[in-house]
Amino acid sequence: MKKYGLLIGCLVMQVLMAAAQAVDTTYIRPFSKPNTLEVYSGLYNINFDFSDRYFQKNDFQLRVNRSATLGADLTYKWLYVQYAFNLPGTMLDNQAKFNYRQLKVRLGNRKWILQPFYQFYNGLLIPERKHRGFEIFRGITFENAGAEVMYYVHSRRFSPKAAYAFSEQQRRSSGSAFVTATGLWHAIRWPSPSPDLIEDPGTFTLLSRNPAWVSLLLKGGYAYNLVIQNWLIAPSASIGFGGLKETHVKGMAIRSVTQLQGNLNAGYNGSNWYTYLSGSWTNLNTELLIKDMQRVSWTLTATAGFRFRSSRKKILSIL
Q1: Which residues form the signal peptide (predicted)?
Q2: pLDDT tens for residues 45-87?
Q3: Which of 101, 200, 257, 281 ranks highest by number of CB atoms within 10 Å?
């Protein structure tokens, strides 16, 4: 029995050592100044489209009241501090005051990355095609929470840190395939349904039932870091398939969920400062019992940062 325990222990150690394998320093190197202070500004957009899967026509749409943001963050040793705010006058509807919350944490090493996340939208907008304006949809909430696990196949020569946040030096061009698994819980709550807000009967029936579901999505993709001296262009793309189960629907019927995603970061990644533009696009299609719900989102962000060394003396005895 001890022999089997020793064998299992050796196998576990080999797996851990492989996950933390040394990088090829001809391709990847850390910066001598590991701390950063950066400012950024961006714009995002999120649409929820409801349609009949057999006719491929959008019957109803809801939009998040997007706005431009301005923010700054500081990374010092293990400390990370961020502050951001919406720029006045940049919303789709400046008269609508809604409550949006988003939380995302990125953990892991060079090969494995874990990202728990949470999103909450309280109040949305209904586009008015005739008047090119929006009707305010109060009293409805969209909420989701979950976690994504990502695995990079060739992490010895490809730097996810350089691609994601320009926080590491990719010295030579390299790419890597990756796979992800995402578990998600999603709920829509509409305590006081009103048919006056939604003309499409199918979408009204779906939302008035306060649907909720859990899903598992498996994705595969490829990321590449193209290096031209100190300039970095980092595109990535992925496609995913999975299944979902509606919690309020009886039976064990599993319906499909699919996702297409693309990202592009490009800019200057120097040893003292860096600046880059980033864009992302995601199309998540969810097949519910009554209607299909398609969530299409995109973000555009400009970032500029300054690198600096740690102080020789501890700050407050902890940093």
Answers
A1: 1-22
A2: 999 999 987 776 678 999 998 889 999 999 998 888 988 888 8
A3: 257
The secondary element (H helix, E strand) that includes residue 8 is: helix 2-19
Residue 319, in any domain of the structure: no
Residue 109 maps to a domain? yes
The answer to whether residues 169 and 163 touch, using CB atoms and an 8 Å cutoff, is: no
Please check whether residue 306 is in contact with residue 37, taking contact to mean a CB–CB distance below 8 angstroms.
yes
Retrieve residue 256's tokens: 């499909």
Written in H, E and C, the secondary structure of 28-44 is: EECCCCCEEEEEEEEEE
Within a domain: residue 293?
Answer: yes
Cβ neighbors of 230 (< 8 A, separation 6 or more) are: 268, 269, 270
Look at residue 170 and give its three-state secondary structure: strand
| 128, containing H or E segment | strand 112-128
Q: What is the pTM of this model?
A: 0.86
Contacts of 270 (CB under 8 A, 6+ apart): 230
Half-sphere exposure of 250 (CA within 13 A, CB side): 0
> Partners of 146 in the beta sheet?
117, 184
Given a contact cutoff of 8 angstroms between Cβ atoms, the answer to whether 274 and 260 are in contact is no
